[in-house]
């Protein structure tokens, strides 16, 4: 029983950064913008959050700095991809390559330093539930916050006029413009939200998951999140499920080792990536649903009046 | 100074695009409750002018007066605020949303809080004008005619006092056109002004009170269309030196070249159309036409015939051989040529030169040897096409995107015609093409026919079909009507077929 | 009001000027950055860009690092021209290195002139096999190649780590995760005696020439271009996207695999975990910077190779973090894409018309 609880708790922790960054990307893609720069924005968020917390001693300062950094990075992308109509693939790749380099550069002096990370907070009553109580309700603040964001995104898309506008812009920016909607503003806001969430996800790694900074500490989570959004067919509910599934996959090697499984760690460390590919393969068996749900203008630049 | 009878007045509107002046000092006045036609052939500047009125683009000079007050229409939102509504030719609807959601998006946020009230309003307005609509249906499930209703109802719910309709009849069956005209007349009686953009003269003569004619970006005349004959108006549109129509001699059909039987194909595209049990035959030396409202399977039929979609069975026989499994290249090698509807981005690669675009389908004409491109021959081939078909361009190195629609279409058709095809499938070859090029394209098709080629003409333009075709039918929702000799097929019957009522009159595939 | 306006024709001048502009902006930003860090910017930039290539040894080192970049970039050019976004050169490279090492280690001390070709062929085959996975996933299971190639990169990295910790580990290597040193027969000959420069650079140049011939003369190169520019026109013409995807990815895998093999049989002489400082990723920048053109990617490879050496130089001489390399590379790509926007667009200054007022029909705006 204890083992199961521990595994579940670790799954939630491992899934949280994925959930955060993927929720941001989901909103971004729903507006028709594909931002492949998640990895770069996460790394920048991670390093900026870590440095801010280290120098101020405040976790809150770290979180805010990380989100602002992610947002600033995403604006670089937005200028290229939204205003200048650059190829979104190339611009996103550039953001990732740039973010990877810049974070390593900025963080070079901070490798090996440590901070006091987020503590687990037990929610009264709920945390006393058997098995799930300690797995779900004895977590750090950011885990609870990720659920809030999830609920917010789901409600926004389903019920609000803003959600309707976002979906409309993502389906057909030309028609949206003809309807008097401000396409570029909507896309900027969506990209900005994606950036802030990526920054937050990065900070989760450097402030809660493993409270320290190492180069490339995201190890592909930004990319996995991109796959996750496709896997979720742009729906928040499936995204939540997928994030925790990936979370489970990424701690599987620890579990197996804990169970005394003797297998080279390097091979087990491949698991999250293999699972990602398997998920993409799984999707190919249901191409109609993927196509029905893909925002129709995804990846296409838009210029009003042309 | 306000003259309340003048709803919209444009003065000296100028709009330059890089390389061309689309509007050159255009004046236009639309009165309250007036149905005003804006006429002109493709490229005359109609679309630009209406985009300016609707705030999609800004004029470089000129003034817009709305109900007596000078205004600036910065964007479509402002146009709607003023009371200008627009029904686009390619609808500005969101397929994945419902009718009510689509309409809600065009209204201010505080007016649509109450979804129930909005749905009620949509029902009321649509029924009042004879265009019943279910607000909860998804747009993707609606026919083209129904989508047009959504656009009109959207304008009415916004209480527009000027309704701009861009080529609204091109997506309708003849019967639907009659219903639309009834609605528009009723609207006009209620005081709504209507700007009706078209190049179909008979429609304009039956509907409109006033007309403004554009030619090459300038106003070439104002008239009351009911007082003039169609050919008089046509002269205003194209000038004196352009032939308006081709004289088509009678066809001399020969042996059957293409035999299609029980052709069915299931699409996996949620927004596509499946083909259902299609059968027809095509003989050498004849032009067979397929009419239909866009999106009823024309694109899919074209792909199945061209080989972009391959099939398993033996439904398509070309000169006796089943070609269902053959890819496009193999079909082309057997003499089957195709001119797709989209010129840029399918028939030609926009950024590539005309010479490079020749290679797209003509590689088999000795332009490639052992995998190596023979540049000299490619250039010669392209030059031949350009000179034979009178393509106006600065040479075979100009990019496809730099040509006007008509010239590029002549090049694409010429590229296929120069390969002496036995069968040519052409989809809407004169769509968006100027009259001069359209006549040239029609002549080229007839010439090919007279040389013994079979031609399948898929088009939404009924005038074109009646003019060129020996036999014709209609496609609706992936099913093909019987074919009938064009001379015996009434427009009414064709309209029924376009709407999917195939069994009204028993007309067998007589000529087959 | 500043407005972005589409040019009637794409500017050819800017197309080639843009990389130079991007380089200038990168250098300028670097200048400010060094200044902000309290370092002498002139000195730092000199160490970064000039010092590494001021003598023969330095030039040889530049060639040494140009080789893998050029090989990877040549393959990626074939992919990117067809808009197949293969991000997997890094993975192909690593698998190529592992496969080549496996053969080299198993041959051991056995000599013979066939050893080296066998080792290199193993590298090529390894890269191709890795690329084939992505090709299969794309053509048969419709998986997005960006995501699959990235994931395959991570998997390849772990395979490499497994190899040097497990089957290919030198049993007498004091526990270091690396293979034995290869025998002489498995090593690439030097191009210039007395330097580390080996014939890998010749492979790279040959690959660039092959890319040039492919796109200038061959029908398959034309087809790749058409698929990239306009996949609907390609479908209409009947060019098989599936076949072309396989072709492009296999070429990409082969060249990057060869690069990996050349790296372990050239300057390193054994398999180590740090066999690639990110050549496969940097090659992406090379392709964009080199305008997907043979001559362009040769120049761009040399420039990006310089950033690797320059970064090491700064680390040694001025005690700066090595990551300065990655940052310069990222900045370069960023500026490049921004400058590229002006190939198709220009900025115009335009005064909005006051309500209803007319303005003379003269050209209403100044070009910037």
Structure report:
Chain C: This is Ribose ABC transport system, permease protein RbsC. The complex is a heterotrimer of chains A (306), B (512) and C (368). With 306 residues, chain A is an all-alpha fold. Chain A has helices spanning 2-30, 38-56, 59-83, 88-107, 132-137, 141-159, 161-171, 173-178, 183-209, 221-231, 236-258, 265-269, 271-284, 287-293, and strands spanning 120-122, 138-140. Chain A has a single domain, classed as ABC transporter involved in vitamin B12 uptake, BtuC, CATH 1.10.3470. Chain A is globular. Chain B has 16 helices and 23 strands. In chain B, helix 4 (115-128) crosses helix 5 (144-157). Chain C has one domain (2-347, 363-367): Orthogonal Bundle (ABC transporter involved in vitamin B12 uptake, BtuC). A 3-stranded antiparallel β-sheet of chain C has the order 1-2-3. In chain C, helix 3 packs parallel to helix 7, helix 3 (56-81) runs antiparallel to helix 10 and helix 4 packs parallel to helix 6. The interface between A and B is medium-sized, with 22 and 28 residues.
């Amino acid at each position: 029983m204890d083992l199961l609880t521990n595994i579940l708790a670790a799954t939630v922790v491992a899934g949280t950064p994925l959930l955060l960054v993927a929720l941001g990307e989901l909103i971004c893609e729903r507006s028709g913008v594909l931002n492949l720069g998640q990895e770069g924005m996460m790394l920048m968020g991670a390093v900026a959050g870590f440095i801010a917390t280290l120098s101020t001693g405040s976790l809150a300062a770290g979180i805010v700095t990380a989100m602002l950094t992610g947002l600033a990075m995403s604006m670089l992308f937005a200028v290229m991809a939204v205003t200048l109509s650059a190829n979104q693939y190339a611009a996103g790749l550039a953001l990732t390559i740039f973010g990877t380099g810049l974070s390593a550069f900025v963080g070079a002096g901070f490798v090996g330093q440590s901070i006091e990370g987020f503590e687990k907070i037990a929610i009264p009553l709920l945390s006393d539930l058997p098995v799930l109580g300690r797995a779900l309700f004895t977590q750090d603040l950011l885990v609870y916050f990720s659920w809030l964001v999830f609920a917010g995104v789901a409600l926004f898309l389903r019920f609000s006029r803003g959600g309707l506008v976002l979906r409309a812009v993502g389906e057909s920016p030309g028609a949206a413009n003809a309807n008097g909607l401000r396409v570029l503003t909507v896309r900027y806001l969506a990209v900005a939200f994606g950036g802030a969430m990526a920054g937050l996800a990065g900070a989760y790694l450097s402030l809660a998951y493993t409270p320290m900074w190492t180069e490339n500490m995201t190890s592909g989570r930004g990319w996995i999140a991109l796959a996750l959004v496709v896997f979720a067919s742009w729906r928040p509910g499936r995204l939540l499920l997928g994030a925790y599934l990936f979370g489970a996959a990424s701690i599987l090697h620890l579990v197996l080792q804990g169970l005394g499984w003797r297998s080279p760690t390097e091979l087990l460390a491949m698991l999250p990536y293999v699972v990602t590919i398997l998920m993409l393969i799984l999707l190919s068996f249901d191409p109609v649903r993927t196509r029905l749900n893909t925002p129709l203008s995804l990846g296409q630049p838009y210029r009003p009046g042309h | 100074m306000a003259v309340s009878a003048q709803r919209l007045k444009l003065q000296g509107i100028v709009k330059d695009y890089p390389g061309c002046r689309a509007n050159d000092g255009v004046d236009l006045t639309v009165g309250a409750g007036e149905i005003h036609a804006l006429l002109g052939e493709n490229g005359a500047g109609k679309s630009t002018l209406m985009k300016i009125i609707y705030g999609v683009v800004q004029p470089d000079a000129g003034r817009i007066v709305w109900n007596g007050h000078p205004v600036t229409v910065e964007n479509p939102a402002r146009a709607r605020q003023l009371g200008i509504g627009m029904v686009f030719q390619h609808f500005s609807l969101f397929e994945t949303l419902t009718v009510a959601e689509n309409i809600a998006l065009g209204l201010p946020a505080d007016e649509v809080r109450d979804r129930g009230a909005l749905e009620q309003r949509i029902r009321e307005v649509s029924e009042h004008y004879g265009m019943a609509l279910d607000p909860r249906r998804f747009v993707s499930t609606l026919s083209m005619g129904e989508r047009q209703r959504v656009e009109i109802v959207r304008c009415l719910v916004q209480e527009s006092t000027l309704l701009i309709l861009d080529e609204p009849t091109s997506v309708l069956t003849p019967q639907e056109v009659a219903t639309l005209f009834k609605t528009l007349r009723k609207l006009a009686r209620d005081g709504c002004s209507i700007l009706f953009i078209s190049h179909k003269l008979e429609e304009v003569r039956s509907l409109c009170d006033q007309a403004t004619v554009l030619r090459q970006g300038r106003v070439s005349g104002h008239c009351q269309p009911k007082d003039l004959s169609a050919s008089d108006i046509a002269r205003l549109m194209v000038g004196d030196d352009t032939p308006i129509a081709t004289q088509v001699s009678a066809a001399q059909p020969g042996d059957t070249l293409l035999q299609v039987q029980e052709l069915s194909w299931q699409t996996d595209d949620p927004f596509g159309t499946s083909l259902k049990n299609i059968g027809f035959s095509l003989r050498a030396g004849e032009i067979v036409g397929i009419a239909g409202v866009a999106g009823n399977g024309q694109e899919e039929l074209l792909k199945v015939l061209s080989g972009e979609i391959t099939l398993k069975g033996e439904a398509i026989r070309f000169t006796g051989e089943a070609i269902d499994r053959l890819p496009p290249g193999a079909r082309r090698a057997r003499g089957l040529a195709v001119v797709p509807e989209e010129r840029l981005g399918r028939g030609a690669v926009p950024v590539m030169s005309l010479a490079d675009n020749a290679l797209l389908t003509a590689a088999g004409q000795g332009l490639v040897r052992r995998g190596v491109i023979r540049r000299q021959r490619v250039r010669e081939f392209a030059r031949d096409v350009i000179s034979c078909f009178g393509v106006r361009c600065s040479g075979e190195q100009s990019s496809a995107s730099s040509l006007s629609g008509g010239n590029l279409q002549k090049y694409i058709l010429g590229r296929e015609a120069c390969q002496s095809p036995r069968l040519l499938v052409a989809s809407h070859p004169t769509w968006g093409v100027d009259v001069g090029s359209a006549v040239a394209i029609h002549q080229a098709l007839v010439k090919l026919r007279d040389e013994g080629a079979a031609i399948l003409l898929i088009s939404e333009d009924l005038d074109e079909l009646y003019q060129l075709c020996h036999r014709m039918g209609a496609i609706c929702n992936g099913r093909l009507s019987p074919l009938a000799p064009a001379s015996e097929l009434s427009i009414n019957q064709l309209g029924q077929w376009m709407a999917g009522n195939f069994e009204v009159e028993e007309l067998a595939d007589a000529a087959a | 009001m500043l407005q972005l306006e589409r040019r009637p024709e794409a500017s050819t001048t800017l197309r080639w000027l843009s990389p130079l502009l991007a380089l200038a902006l990168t250098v300028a930003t670097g200048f400010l950055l060094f200044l902000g860090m309290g370092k002498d910017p002139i000195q730092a930039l000199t160490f970064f860009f000039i010092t590494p290539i001021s003598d023969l040894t330095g030039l040889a080192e530049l060639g040494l690092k140009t080789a893998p970049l050029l090989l990877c970039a040549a393959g990626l050019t074939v992919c990117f021209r067809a808009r197949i976004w293969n991000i997997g050169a890094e993975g192909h490279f690593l698998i190529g290195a592992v496969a080549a090492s496996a053969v080299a280690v198993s041959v051991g001390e056995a000599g013979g002139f066939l050893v080296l070709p066998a080792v290199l062929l193993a590298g090529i085959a390894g890269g191709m096999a890795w690329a084939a996975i992505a090709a299969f996933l794309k053509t048969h299971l419709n998986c997005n190649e960006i995501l699959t190639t990235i994931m395959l990169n991570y998997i390849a990295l772990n395979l490499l780590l497994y190899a040097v910790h497990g089957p290919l580990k030198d049993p007498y290597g004091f526990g270091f995760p690396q293979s034995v040193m290869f025998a002489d027969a498995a090593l690439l000959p030097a191009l210039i005696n007395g330097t580390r420069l080996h014939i890998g650079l010749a492979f790279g140049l040959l690959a660039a020439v092959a890319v040039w011939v492919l796109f200038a003369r061959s029908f398959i190169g034309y087809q790749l271009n058409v698929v990239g520019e306009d996949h609907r026109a390609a479908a209409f013409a009947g060019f098989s996207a599936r076949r072309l995807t396989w072709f492009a990815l296999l070429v990409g895998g082969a060249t990057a695999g060869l690069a990996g093999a050349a790296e372990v049989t050239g300057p390193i002489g054994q398999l180590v975990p740090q066999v690639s400082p990110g050549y496969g990723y940097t090659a992406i920048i090379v392709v964009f910077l080199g305008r997907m053109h043979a001559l362009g990617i040769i120049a761009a490879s040399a420039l990006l190779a310089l950033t690797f050496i320059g970064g090491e130089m700064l680390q040694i001489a001025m005690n700066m973090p090595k990551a300065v390399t990655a940052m310069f590379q990222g900045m370069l790509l960023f500026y490049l894409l921004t400058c590229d926007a002006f190939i198709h667009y220009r900025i115009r200054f335009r005064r909005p018309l006051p309500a209803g007022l007319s303005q003379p029909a003269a050209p209403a705006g100044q070009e910037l």
